[in-house]
Amino acid sequence: MKLFNFVLATTGPRLTNFKILSRYAFSAVRHMTPRKLVNISRVEYARVRAKDKVGGFPYILKIESTNVCNERCPFCLDRDRSSFDEDGRGFGKMSLDEFKSVIDVMAPTALRLNLYGSGEPVLYPDIYDMIRYAADKNIGVTISANLAAFKKENAEKLVLSGLEHLIVSCHGASPETYDKYNIGGDFHKVIENMRAICDAKKKHGRKLPFVDWQFLRFRHNQHEMPKAREMAKDIGVNAIRFINPNIPPEHKEEWRPLREDESDNPNTGEGRVQASPGVSISLNDQAIARGEKMAENANRPKADVQACSWLYRSMFVNWDGGILPCCDGTTNPGHDLSHWENFAGKTRKEFEAFWNGDLYRNLRNMANFKVPREQMDKKYTCSICIKPHMPFVLYERGFQLPPKIEKQLLETEPDLPQKREKWLATGETVSAGVGGTDT
Fold it and tell me: What percent of the chain clears pLDDT 90, i.e. is strictly above it?
């Protein structure tokens, strides 16, 4: 277990990942208190020691103000919007009172709030009061918005709300490339709104919010990255980041951006992209990790993995109060670990009983590779996430992992060497179908 574990949800180049982490560092410095420092120390001690009980509280919150969205992006986590029916979570927005009740319990140790989920947070006017309430509680607030439905006359209101970080999802530098992914958006309106927000900052002499243009990199828009950089300078945004999105396996051939080893154009990236979040593998060995070729036992490729940190540092609350360990699996309320109504108006001690209850402890053991894959409870998103499966998959595919991790894997699944032989002979894996591992 590494002391510094910053596993991101995306697979961006290293410079992009550094830009993301720098914003978290800014929030930590700006909002730190002695109590919050002690809390972080306790959380990180439990994470580094792979404990299933945590002596502190989550210090990065993610709260979904709404899951209603004006766009229909193909690879959104909730791209199948039809599943939001009466049998699913449905559509809606969090009430301001419920939002305040979450903040009241979590604020003493929270450093950062990502106030967005599957929807467009600026669709409802309550967002400004939510931002102000959390900011006044000494929490750094971030929202991610496509800005296609934003009214530019609200630019000053957003700037003065106390918002610390604004991520703008605009995935193209022309209407032609933008429209392919940001379905239902308006490229020219988004650019106009970004400019209006940057101008409002100048008018009021504000350095915040930090305006962060997020550009998902696909094969069809990769050539526009130099143009996007120039546009970002002209508009006045603070940064532009190029991200590799998670693309469903059946669409990878068409949408996947060219890797560094496939392109001679130095302007199409910001450095090498890792194979998967939390995994460090050389470029030459990534084909083995993808299952495109087999490893030779005599010359085992090497990899390093990091356990998921969400179960220690973070917590996700859906618009309807459903609690999840992260922002995956939000469509199905059956994945919820609990509901916020169980803690509203109650003490932190009552929340702690849930935070360190049997369910969370089991999920942490899963995240630390201490639960055999066959015993993972399919009810919860962690069991179908690639992260707890990844070291087992890599071991099966012939990779050499750090000794401590290999020891834990063999304690968890003693027959793993036999499973490796089966993979080498037939390509079959216990983790088939999880995160594309069957391809």
Answer: 57
Are residues 159 and 205 in contact, defined by beta-carbon separation less than 8 angstroms?
no
Q: Where are the beta strands (DSSP E) in 228-376?
A: 239-243, 279-281, 303-305, 314-317, 322-324, 338-339
- In angstroms, the CA 214 to CA 260 distance is 20
Q: Whole-angstrom distance between the N-terminal and C-terminal Cα of the chain?
A: 28
Pair 151, 194: CB distance under 8 Å: no
d(CA 361, CA 304) in angstroms, rounded, equals 24
Cβ-based neighbours of 242, under 8 Å, separated by 6 or more: 12, 13, 16, 215, 217, 225, 269, 270
pLDDT at residue 173 above 80?
yes
Give the C-alpha separation, 421 to 185, whole Å: 50
**Cα pseudo-dihedral 179, 184, 188, 189, rounded to 10:** -160
Contact of 50 with 3, CB cutoff 8 Å: no
Two tokens, residue 410: 């063999």
Per 3-state DSSP, what percentage of the chain is helix, strand, and coil (rounded to 5)? Answer: 45, 10, 45
The tokens for 278 are: 């939390």
When pLDDT is cut at 50, 70 and 90, the band that residue 8 belongs to is very low
Contact 313, 59 (CB under 8 A): yes
pLDDT, tens digit, for every residue of 311-344?
Answer: 999 999 999 999 999 887 777 778 899 999 988 7
Task: Please give the Cα distance from 179 to 193 (Å, whole number).
Answer: 17
> Distances in Å between the alpha carbon of 44 and those of 20, 23, 30, 47, 58?
20, 19, 19, 5, 10
Q: 257: cis peptide before it, omega within 30°?
A: no
Helices (H), 63-138: 96-106, 126-136
Amino acid identity at 83: S
Q: How many residues does the chain have?
A: 439
What is the identity of the amino acid at 218? F
Closest CA to 194 of 231, 249, 220: 231
Q: How far apart are CA 300 and CA 203, in angstroms?
A: 59
pTM value surpassing 0.70:
yes
SS3 state of residue 323: strand
Q: How many other C-beta atoms are found inside a 10 Å radius of the C-beta of residue 90? A: 13
d(CA 29, CA 271): 27
387 touches 325 (CB < 8 A): no
Name the residue with tokens 């199409």.
Answer: 268
